[in-house]
Design goal:
Layout: E1 3-6, H1 11-19, E2 24-26, H2 33-42, E3 45-49, H3 52-60, E4 65-67, H4 73-82, E5 101-104, E6 111-114, E7 120-122, H5 125-190, H6 194-201
Parallel strand pairs: 1-2, 1-3, 3-4
Antiparallel strand pairs: 5-6, 6-7
Helix pairs in contact: 4-5
Bound molecules: zinc ion.
């Protein structure tokens, strides 16, 4: 996975990405577009933005960029999942400063500490709430994939019906052909076909 740089409109998404173990830096407060591009390029990060114009500038400057469409965090996470981000909590990054977390010895509970700012993390009620929300988003994605596959299946069924109609029409056509042959046989009995008459005349 690449490392990310969340622009100022997507700081919350950046925090969630860090909770899921991604290296996601925040844009510095008040930074102009060109400073964002510079930081993304220097630190080889993929810029995440909702600003279509900024995304265009990124592409023009050869900086990797993800244009997020939704303003809702659940849908933003879904968009990231579509790009291959695993939606599950994974304590490797400090949600405040993006510093690496170190697991520390603690008898009472699993605990991690940020190597940069010292903040402590453990699996409390907040953790459970976040896991629940990620689980719900994963379920939604699964559901929409099933719906999508049902639509695909229904198209296949429809195409089978169409095919069967074509087959049927071929049978009908073949019956018509057969009935033409019958006509021909009938004609044969009555009189010689015209081409035979012509040949005889030559
Ligand atoms: Zn930290």
């Amino acid at each position: 996975m690449p490392s990310f740089l969340a622009d100022l409109m997507l700081l919350r998404l950046g925090r969630w990405l860090r909770m899921m173990g991604q290296d996601a830096a925040n844009a510095d407060e008040g930074s102009a577009d060109r400073e964002l591009l510079k930081k993304a390029r220097e630190e080889m990060r993929t810029l995440i933005t909702r600003d279509r114009r900024l995304a265009g500038e990124c592409r023009a400057a050869g900086v990797e960029c993800i244009l997020i469409k939704s303003s809702r965090i659940e849908e933003q996470l879904e968009e990231m999942a579509e790009l291959g981000i695993t939606l599950g909590l994974d304590p490797h990054r400090c949600t405040l400063c993006n510093g690496p977390l170190q697991k520390i010895e603690c008898k009472e509970r699993a605990t991690w500490q940020c190597e940069s700012c010292g903040k402590l993390y453990w699996k409390g009620s907040h953790w459970k709430k976040m896991e629940k929300m990620l689980g719900e988003i994963r379920d939604n994605i699964d559901k929409s994939n099933i719906d999508k596959s049902n639509i695909d299946k229904s198209n296949i069924d429809k195409s089978n019906i169409d095919k069967s109609n074509i087959d049927k029409s071929n049978i009908d056509k073949s019956n018509i052909d057969k009935s033409n042959i019958d006509d021909l046989h009938l004609n044969n009995k009555k009189q010689q076909p015209r081409w035979q008459q012509d040949r005889q005349q030559c």
